[in-house]
Amino acid sequence: MGQYGVTFDEINVEEDEAALVSLKEAGYQSVPVTFADNAEPIVGFRPDLLSELTKATI
Where is the Glutaredoxin domain (predicted)? Predict the structure, then answer.
């Protein structure tokens, strides 16, 4: 997404225990999980949905 000029924050759950706990408490059982304003979370590696999300934000 960075290559398209979309800013984002990457959180590594292997390094951030609180982030991992937060995802588990929210019911997520796999990563990555991509959150964006005005969009449903994207669970798993979904290049097709990430492409749509990127196009909608630029």
Answer: 3-38
